[in-house]
Amino acid sequence: YYLMSFNVDQVYLHLISEICGWIYFFAWSISFYPQIFINYKRKSVVGLSLDFIALNITGFVCYFTSLVVNKSNGDDNIHIQDLFFAGHALFCCLVTGFQCLIYEKGTQDVSIVVRTLLVLIWGAIIVNIYLFSSNQETIEMFAKQLGLYKVGISFSKYLPQVYLNYKRKSTVGWSIENVLLDFTGGVFSLIQLFVDEIQTGWDGNLIPKLLLSLESLAFDVIFFGQHFFLYRANNKSLVELEYGQLASEDDEETDPLVSSTNRLEKLPQ
C-alpha cells in the first residue's frame, strides 16, 4: 500500500511539474513579443535600453549552450521546455536586436561599460572553450560556468533598463506586458523547481534556473512600481504626445519643412 501510494504521488508530482513547465515556457516565450510589437508599431526603440538587449543576447547564448550540453550529458532535470524556451528566447532577442539597428533610437546607444563587459565575457568564453574542451568532465564544468555567466548577465541586464526608466521618469517604450508575462513565468518556474526537488532531490545544474527565476521576479516588482506608481502620470502624457505625433505623419509627408526623423525628438531620450 505504501509503495502504491508513493507511486501515485510521484505520478501527480510529475504531472504538476510538466504543467508548470509548459505554463512557464509559454509565459516566458510570449513575453518577448509585446516588446517586438511595440517597437514595430512605433518604428522606434526609444525607451528600450540597448544595454539590456546587448546583454540579453549574450546571456541567452550562454544559457542555451549550457542547457544543450547538460541535456546531451544525460541530465534528466533539464526539461524539453527549458531547451525550447532558451532557443526561442535567443531568436527573439536577435529579432529585437535587429530592430534596434533599423528603428529610431534617439541618442541611445550601447554604453562603453557594457561594451567593455561584453568583450571581457566573450574573451572568457573563448579562453574557457580552449581550456575545457579536452574531456567530458571539463566540458560539463564549462557548461555550468556558462549557466552562471547567464545568471550574472541577467542581473546586469536589468540595471540599465531600471536606470533608463528612472532617468526618463517614464516606462514608455518598455513593454509592461513583457514584465507581467515574465513575472508569471518566474512564479511557475520556481514551482516546477520545488516539485522536481521533492521528486528527485536537488540538482546543482538547476542553480542557474533558480537564480534566474528569483532575479526576474525581483526586477519585475521594481518595474511594476515604476510603471504603475512612480511614473504613471508621465507615461500617460508621453503616450498622448507620441500618438499625436504619429497621427501627424500624413501631414509630415506633405510638408517639406517637417522632418519625420524628428517626430519623437520631444520624448525623453
Describe the overall structure.
- There is one protein chain.
- The chain has about 270 residues and is mainly alpha-helical.
- It is about 80% helix and about 0% strand.
- Helix 1 runs parallel beside helix 4 (about 80-100), helix 2 packs parallel to helix 4 (about 80-100) and helix 6 (about 135-170) runs parallel beside helix 8 (about 205-230).
- The N and C termini lie far apart (about 65 Å).
- Mean pLDDT is about 85; it is low at about 1-5 and about 255-265.
Instruction: Work out the strand percent.
Output: under 5%
Kindly provide the radius of gyration, computed on alpha-carbon positions and rounded to a whole number of angstroms: 21 Å
Measured as a percent range, the helix fraction is over 70%
The residue ranges in which pLDDT falls below 50 over 5 or more consecutive positions are 1-6, 254-266
Chain oligomer state: single chain
Structural class from helices and strands? mainly alpha
Q: Order of helices and strands, N to C?
A: HHHHHHHHHH
Q: How many helices in DSSP terms? A: 10
The end-to-end span amounts to: 67 Å
Number of strands: 0
Shape: globular
Mean pLDDT: 84
Any descriptors?
single chain, 269 residues, mainly alpha, 10 helices, disordered N terminus
Overview in brief:
The protein is mainly α and 269 residues long. It has helices at residues 2-30, 32-42, 50-72, 80-102, 112-132, 136-168, 176-200, 207-230, 232-247, 249-254.
